[in-house]
């Protein structure tokens, strides 16, 4: 007989550049979740504290009910609120899995797969260094890459000004350098992420219908319902649902574990982001997953895949001293200026 799990505490945990939620029950089970709104994690922390007022004393297993209360009680929602809800929601699923002694995917209908294909990040300053880093990560077990920078040709602290001709010339030169490596054979990118800002579904559809590479978008949405407008217009082929915001992961292994539980349970999964870079908000490549030093388990790439964690709940826990290992970091608010004084959205 499974003991009743009553929520005893709900706490935000600011660890490095990450915001976690720790939920503890009266039976001593601890669940962890992660808020995915990396640019405004302090706002997510405030929302977690606010929702704690409602959650303490409630049954931890009533996950769907709690989600609906938090999501519906006010007319006003958004990314900060929904990422806090998601962090709590993930933590409650973690508790339920741990209490029942099964991974979360067993509570979602069981596993469709035991492994998930992944792609790594490449953050380098030149095309030559990008290619070197790709080769290095291939030796480490990666077969796909995304966020392949340099997407800028100069530092972001410099005032931006380029004519249309200069921008086209930069693009041509980058293609020439890549062609020098791959030769004349056809290349088929899996997807292009957010070719434009995703707010305008009609504009995204026009782009999608005019390019040969499939469009992927969605990480900036805060509910699954926002995908409807894009799907109805055939404007997206890869729905990049950010589990740490909506119910993609460029964040810690906790967010990765939550995504992998979903990947195990759904039939139409394609590929999982595996963050190898962006430590402390700096665009530099790493060989290990972002935040690997603050958890007790991180799936390791092998031949382009990682194993789905099969331990109870998420299959990963924060280390007790995680906040000592990574003191809290705050994302500075800054944008690159154009020569006329307006901002550049890069």
Automatic annotation (TrEMBL):
Cofactor(s) in the UniProt record: Mg(2+)
Domain Mandelate racemase/muconate lactonizing enzyme N-terminal: 10-109
InterPro entries referenced in this protein's UniProt entry, alphabetically: DgoD-like, Enolase-like_C_sf, Enolase-like_N, Enolase_C-like, Mandel_Rmase/mucon_lact_enz_CS, Mandelate_racemase_N_dom
Gene Ontology molecular function: any one: lyase activity
Residues annotated as domain Enolase C-terminal: 242-319
Signal peptide interval: none
Stored Gene3D superfamilies: Enolase-like C-terminal domain (3.20.20.120), Enolase-like, N-terminal domain (3.30.390.10)
Database matches in CDD domains: MR_like
Keywords of this entry: Lyase
Gene Ontology biological-process annotations: amino acid catabolic process
Name of this protein: Mandelate racemase/muconate lactonizing enzyme C-terminal domain-containing protein
Species of provenance: Parascedosporium putredinis
């Amino acid at each position: 007989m499974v003991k009743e799990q009553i929520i005893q505490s709900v706490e935000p945990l600011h660890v490095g550049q990450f915001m976690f939620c720790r939920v503890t029950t009266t039976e001593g089970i601890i669940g962890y979740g992660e808020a995915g709104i990396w640019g405004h994690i302090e706002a997510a922390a405030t929302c977690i504290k606010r929702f704690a007022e409602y959650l303490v004393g409630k049954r931890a297993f009533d996950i769907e009910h709690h989600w609906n209360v938090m999501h519906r009680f006010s007319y006003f929602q958004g990314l900060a609120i929904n990422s806090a809800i998601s962090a709590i929601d993930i933590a409650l699923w973690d508790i339920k899995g741990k209490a029942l002694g099964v991974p979360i995917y067993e509570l979602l209908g069981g596993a469709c797969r035991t492994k998930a294909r992944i792609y790594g990040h490449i953050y380098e300053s030149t095309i030559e260094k990008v290619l070197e880093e790709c080769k290095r990560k291939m030796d480490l077990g990666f077969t796909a890459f995304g966020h392949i920078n340099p997407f800028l040709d100069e530092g972001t602290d410099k005032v931006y000004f380029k004519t249309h001709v200069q921008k086209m010339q930069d693009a041509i030169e980058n293609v020439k350098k890549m062609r020098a490596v791959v030769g004349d054979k056809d290349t088929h990118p899996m997807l292009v992420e957010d070719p434009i800002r995703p707010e305008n579904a009609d504009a995204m559809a026009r782009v999608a219908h005019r390019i040969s590479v499939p469009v992927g978008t969605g990480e900036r949405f805060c509910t699954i319902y926002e995908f409807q407008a894009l799907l109805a217009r055939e404007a997206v082929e890869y729905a990049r649902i950010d589990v740490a915001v909506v119910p993609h992961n460029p964040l810690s292994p906790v967010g990765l574990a939550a995504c992998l539980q979903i990947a195990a349970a759904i039939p139409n999964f394609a590929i999982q982001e595996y963050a190898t870079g962006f430590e402390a908000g700096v665009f530099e490549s790493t060989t290990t997953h972002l935040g690997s030093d603050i958890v007790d388990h991180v799936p390791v790439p092998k031949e382009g895949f990682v194993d789905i964690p099969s331990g109870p709940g998420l299959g990963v826990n924060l280390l007790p001293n995680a906040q000592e290992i990574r003191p809290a970091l705050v994302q500075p608010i800054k944008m690159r200026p154009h020569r006329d004084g307006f901002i550049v959205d890069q």
